[in-house]
């Protein structure tokens, strides 16, 4: 910086003298300068420019004439904008006359001092002083203008390039390098193919041509040096002309710079030939070489670059764009057709700056003429390229008011053409352009939605593509909400509603968890409703779209989702159960959907509460009940483990049952036994059931069928709970008396045989009990010794005389013998799939009244099996029936001719008993053994004398089955079920609600 307050041109001279301004001894120093120059500026800026090295070729030949040596003219721009223009020349002798020296004269032109684009002509023709005597003083005058005159010789670029042997292509490369160097860090080194003494003069000629080819902004940046002995990087110098042959190949100092060795080799380094083949370089070279002037273009470019971002005037691409626009404006319209998009993009770019229209009206008119041209093409059915649409969109951003209607119409016609030709790519990018600009989008969609035909033609297909792009239900609903809320015409449009519903169904089909997805849909739709302000309905609600989507999602569950595919946790999430109009809604459904809805509602009622009613499925068709129960059955083990006992009951509910038939207790207990991980779970369930009315009789206590099922459990698996003190105290001892009595009875039933025997005979006296224990012990010892019970023929046994003791008859309640029994007739073939049950009656009237409609059998699997289809056939014993009618048949209770044990009444006959017969106090419905039928169930036993109690080799057992004489039941009906079912001793038969005793299964005719 000069730091001068003056606006005049400053001077400085530098050479070798006896003394200088900054030194008192001889040497190179400033010998004179203008007063406006700052000392620091002189030392830091000007002194480094005061350099001259004579050409090696001239010194080698000992040239003494100073005028032969090339002058080193330099020009740089300082950081403050000042221009330093100077010249260094060779001096054959200094003040001593003994050595050579050089003399430098610098002009410092302040920034803004009458700058003009043609200043370069003045600079290249400025006059400099060749010598100065310090004795004349050290102060130089300040100048208003540079010396050298105002009329400069004209330069013929073609002649100069021809003289310097520079072709057009080489000139364009040099121009490219100079422009790049002026804005970058690379230097340009040029070795002209001229003698050393002609380097400077030739450089000035070439500089004149280069300056003429440079846009104004580059002219104001360029620094040059017309001669240097060797290439050397200097601050502020972009273009340096060097002594011929000084650019040596492989010189690492210049390997990254632009090198033009125009001597014999013609070597050029680091210039991209492709970059040179650009519009500006072609045009400027052609213009200059044909004698034209580029000044008009430079003015056009300067005007168009006004208001653009900083540095835009120093980018090469700007001039490539502007020269094309300039040529088109000058009438070369064919250039537009060659590069339509780039031309329009350039126009929109230069018109986008603030307040561009007033200054660049010619560009705006040019753009509008091109838009009209493109509009006509679209009218003819053309589909615009994406670049064209982008250009018009960018123009709209700046000049929306004047172009909106025309642009919207252009886009509508373009989209219509794209849809007509099914050009989906064009549709996509045109709509993308519309979406990017909210104001343009609003103008477009307002226009389209205001026309029903355009809505159907353009908007609905667009919405279809938008919905298809959404990844899931959430994204789809977001699209529907956005458009339905933004434009009320959209939410009320029937095609849009149908499209949204169809898209929603498609997304739901892709969901892995449809129930959760539908629940999320309802939640989202509720949010839409809650977002309404001021008590007003939103457009989505007013149009009914929200309700329609809810309805569609609910129907999807009914149509596409089977009950068997979802869990109870999912069932309770189904949202339509909370509809206030659920009953009416289900009633309006078609039959298939109605059945599915009823099943889902039943499942919801079942699992949505902790304590569902066992009859929750009542009212459903039997087939529907079975489907719901089958579905729930697989989820009940989890419910049992979690302690939800009440949720088990509906699975075992029988809607046709009364009293004991309300719950299938046998199947319930059997299932819990199977599902429970341990007996503790069963114990907890039993205690829980005490408080449930479904398990109790009106008088209190458990239902008989439930008691039988529990007794079977205690006998098979749960005995420990009754007999282990810790479990008894934990679970059963705290029970209410009515239930505790049952547990005590079950405990007695599950006692060991010895405990049962001791308990029974304790009633007949202590001595009788001791005798029996002794007898039992003796028999056990004999059996262990092999005396009795071996496979060999038994030796005659002398029956010991019983010890005469006072007999105390046990008090046994007398029970009546059943009037009808049933026995199972086994199949003769194992492959036969049928069940035969023989029902025997004492009177013909009872047989005539036997007209069964429904049969329930508890099989060996402890499950209930119901039958309504079976066959009946009478198989009466005519002889026994005749005797019964004449009163001549034997009395099974008192007649000594009767064979077999007494009936269930327990009265002991005086004749011999059957081998297995022990009279007992079993109830009338206890299983017994049939005797007297074709000799089939009859065995002979050893008669006892007087006691009335017969024993066999295994001892006495009060649990032995009671035998029945079929001759007392001469009226018989054979019932056949044409299905296979296994029966055992615990099986029961219930006909139309009445239970029949099942005789122990034995081979019989």
TrEMBL record:
Residues 877-964 are annotated as: Disordered. Residues 161-264 form the GTPase-associated protein 1 middle domain. Residues 9-145 form the GTPase-associated protein 1 N-terminal domain. Residues 906-920 have a biased composition (Gly residues). Residues 889-905, 921-943, 951-963 have a biased composition (Low complexity). Coiled coil: none annotated. This is Glycosyltransferase.
